[in-house]
Design goal:
The structure holds 2 protein chains of 2 kinds. Chain A is an alpha/beta fold. Helix content of chain A is about 40%, strand content about 25%. Chain A has 16 helices and 26 strands. In chain A, strands 6-5-8-9-4-10-11-12-13 form a 9-stranded mixed β-sheet, with helices on both faces. Chain A has a 9-stranded mixed β-sheet with strand order 18-17-19-20-16-21-22-23-24, sandwiched between helices. Chain A has a 3-stranded antiparallel β-sheet with strand order 1-2-3, with no helix packed on it. In chain A, a hairpin with a 5-residue loop joins strand 1 and strand 2. In chain A, helix 12 packs parallel to helix 14. Chain A is rod-shaped, with a radius of gyration of 49 Å. By secondary structure, chain B is α+β, with helices and mostly antiparallel strands. Chain B has a domain of about 80 residues: Glutaredoxin (3-Layer(aba) Sandwich), CATH 3.40.30. In chain B, about 30% of the residues lie in helices and about 20% in strands. Chain B has a 5-stranded mixed β-sheet with strand order 1-3-2-4-5. In chain B, strand 2, helix 2 and strand 3 form a beta-alpha-beta unit. The radius of gyration of chain B is 13 Å and the shape is globular. Chain B starts with a helix and ends in a 7-residue tail after the last helix. The chains are: A alpha/beta, B alpha+beta. Chains A and B meet through strand 7 and helix 5 of A and helix 2, helix 3, strand 5 and helix 4 of B. Strand 7 of chain A pairs parallel with strand 5 of chain B, so a sheet runs across the interface.
């Protein structure tokens, strides 16, 4: 079903109907709004924002949820009210004309009233009923009903009548907000909490360490669960907002997308890919270890990817950051010009913690960055107590995570604190925690970096030397010398030594190779000589053998000729028989 | 003088004048009283208030008065204009200063004080 208006009714698990107030954050804390068709008491001291709360409840009801509302004002006239809230963008006159809102100013002035005998407040009831009927109201505000006690002296009658009034509001099914001044030891000066007991919200505006903070607490809420803490709230240009916006749940989506830290070597240490998108990165370090520079690398990388980035600086001004980062070869000015980067520099003590939260919220709502840097978060403790600063950070982290914004915080620790101990308050909020430390050695100080933790990814356990060059930050593998790790010039010396050793070794290897070559050549020459010697000998032998053969042939030929010639002669001379025998 | 003013009040006609008999207002116009009594139907307080104001007027003002009785049930918008909170409320419109008396007007002394009338010895 298509719905133009937002849901006008919410239900918590047990079926108690609730009316959303539309006030940012409050509906989360109360798990859906204030009880529907019942009165809710809003109490607080002077200037705590009761009237504004009430008006916003009505205006949002009328505009966002389509529920007309009646404002019974005991303290301000309709005109005054309209003027007061115009700055928040609420146009009461227009709403009145559209019959979405009715304002009735009830004037009760003791000096004009003389009491004589019994009376009741039927006149007021009729007026309220008339106003409700005239616009078909679903919501009603009585601000501040206690003014009646100032105008009329008969407490006995007043209390009876108020009880009747609240009963009547319930019977009519009106979702009511009743504001009341806070008493000294009670919630309200006149003990109204006795009559309005379904839901009580306490507003508070107190000054701690010269910082004014507004807080809200749901004191009771019958029949439903609700956040019980004191929640800071603010009144700003958009009206009332209770923080955190992401109330009590822990439901943000986690992606496995990764993005570069801006330093390739660091990315390599983080499983080769860098941080998770939407994760929270904390860079902790002692003074001068390059926290801001690391954050600036992240900013630079983000802008290079074409993503918007917010830099909230609490220690340096914009131009100071630009100048300092230029010295290590990062030109952040170009991103400023392209509108990808916004630097917001302010002193943390300028505002209370809640206002800081608001600044963060507003900045993010307006600029819609995908990456946020807060440099440093440590300064928040200058504004509030440790606990307050922690809750505030928790809210910022929640808020950023819910929007998939990657956040890099820097934090300062002193030299002698053990890492982890100082930040124990927020360590659980952090996904990737980098630690920068100074290593003092051989008369110099060198920066080093290691990864204290990085959720959900393999990460290096190595300490790296962190060097700031003219072309940005580099991470160098620390050298392991005979006395453990060495950095800086000792490392360079070691490396030089290793290099010279290397050269010597190379030389010896080369000469050995050369001598082998020589040997080989010599061997070849000798082989050649032997071959020729053999050839000569073989030659001689063969010639000998040949000649011998020839001679033998010749002799044989001679012999046969001789034999032939002898037999021919004997036949010619004596052809006689041999008788002598 | 009509004695059943309350009946009239609760009927459709919202304004019921129970002005005194022969008014001689030419004599002292500045002393003429103009009163409005806001009541809520026929509640005991309203009935008592009407009876009380009538008897006071009859006793002290002797015809120099107009009393308008208004039922806020019938005319709720009038209650807003007149800033009626408690009922019954008696508004002294004239002579100035304007003054409001709430209650059933049973404490005669305070009513007389509110109407700037001197109690009879």
């Amino acid at each position: 079903m298509l719905r133009k208006k937002r849901k006008t009714e919410t239900r918590s698990g047990n079926g108690l109907a609730k009316s959303p107030t539309g006030i940012a954050g409050l509906d989360e804390i109360t798990n859906g709004g204030i009880p529907r068709g019942r009165p809710t008491l809003v109490c607080g001291g002077a200037g705590s924002g009761k009237t504004l709360f009430a008006i916003e409840f009505l205006v949002r009801g009328a505009v966002e949820f389509g529920e007309p509302g009646v404002f019974i004002a005991f303290e301000e006239t309709a005109d005054e009210l309209a003027k007061n809230v115009r700055s928040l963008g609420f146009d009461l006159d227009k709403l009145s004309r559209q019959k979405k809102l009715a304002i009735d100013y009830v004037h009760v002035e003791r000096c004009e009233i003389l009491e004589s005998g019994e009376y009741d407040l039927e006149g007021l009831f009729i007026r309220i009923a008339h106003a409700v009927k005239s616009i078909g109201a679903k919501r009603i505000v009585l601000d501040t009903v206690e003014a009646l006690f100032a105008g009329l002296s008969n407490d006995f009658i007043l209390r009876g009548e108020l009880r009747r009034l609240f009963r009547w509001l319930k019977d009519e099914g009106l979702t009511a907000v009743i504001t009341a001044e806070r008493g000294v030891s009670t919630l309200t000066r006149q003990g109204l909490e006795e009559y309005v007991s379904d839901c009580v919200i306490l507003l508070d505006h107190r000054v701690i360490d010269q910082m004014a903070t507004r807080r809200m607490r749901v004191v009771k809420y019958r029949g439903t669960i609700h956040g019980t803490n004191e929640y800071p709230f603010l009144i700003d240009k958009q009206g009332f907002s209770v923080l955190p916006v992401t109330g009590l749940s822990l439901e943000h989506q986690a992606t496995s997308a990764r993005l570069s830290s801006g330093i390739p070597e660091l990315d390599a240490m983080l499983g080769g890919k860098g941080y998770f998108r939407g994760s929270t990165v904390l860079i902790t370090g002692t003074p001068g270890t390059g926290k801001t520079s690391m954050a600036a690398h992240f900013v630079d990388a983000a802008c290079r990817r074409g993503e918007r980035c917010s830099f909230l600086a609490f220690e340096e001004s914009e131009s100071q950051i630009l100048r300092n980062m230029r010295s290590i070869g990062l030109d952040l000015g170009q991103w400023l010009k392209k509108g990808l980067l916004q630097i917001k520099a302010s002193r943390p003590t300028l505002l209370g913690l809640e206002m800081h939260l608001v600044t963060v919220h507003q900045e993010i709502e307006q600029f819609r960055p995908r990456n946020v840097v807060i440099d440093p978060i440590t300064d928040f403790e200058a504004v509030g107590s440790h606990g307050d600063a922690k809750t505030m950070l928790l809210r910022i982290v929640d808020f950023l995570k819910s929007r998939q914004i990657t956040a890099v915080f820097t934090s300062l620790i002193s030299e002698d604190t053990t890492p982890g101990a100082a930040e124990v308050g927020i360590s659980s909020l952090i996904d990737t925690w980098l630690l920068l430390r100074n290593l003092e050695q051989a008369g110099e100080r060198n920066r080093s970096l290691y990864i204290l933790k990085s959720r959900g990814m393999p990460h290096s356990n190595q300490i790296r030397e962190f060097v700031l060059t003219n072309h940005g930050a580099r991470l160098i593998k620390v050298a392991i010398g005979p006395d453990g790790i060495v950095t800086g010039s000792s490392r360079e010396a070691l490396q030089a030594r290793e290099k010279s050793n290397g050269i010597a070794n190379e030389q010896s290897r080369q000469s050995r190779r050369r001598s082998l070559d020589h040997k080989h050549t010599a061997l070849l020459a000798r082989l050649k000589a032997l071959q020729s010697e053999f050839d000569a000998e073989a030659n001689a032998v063969m010639t000998d053998i040949e000649q011998e053969g020839l001679r033998e042939k010749h002799a044989q030929a001679q012999r046969s000729r001789l034999v032939q010639s002898r037999t021919e002669r004997s036949r010619r001379f004596t052809p006689v028989k041999d008788d002598g025998k | 003088m009509r004695s059943n003013g309350k009946k009239k009040v609760t009927k459709a006609k919202p304004k019921t004048t129970i002005a005194g008999a022969a008014p001689d207002w030419q004599k002292t116009p500045e002393d003429r009283y103009s009163l409005r009594l806001y009541v809520t139907g026929a509640t005991p307080n309203s009935v008592r208030a009407i009876q009380n104001i009538k008897s006071i007027c009859a006793e002290y003002l002797d015809g120099r008065y107009d009393v308008e009785i208004i039922d806020v049930y019938k005319q709720p918008s009038l209650a807003k204009g007149e800033q009626i909170v408690a009922t019954p409320t008696l508004v002294k419109v004239l002579p100035l200063p304007l003054r409001r008396l709430v209650g059933d007007l049973s404490q005669r002394d305070s009513v007389l004080l509110g109407l700037d009338l001197v109690p009879k010895k």
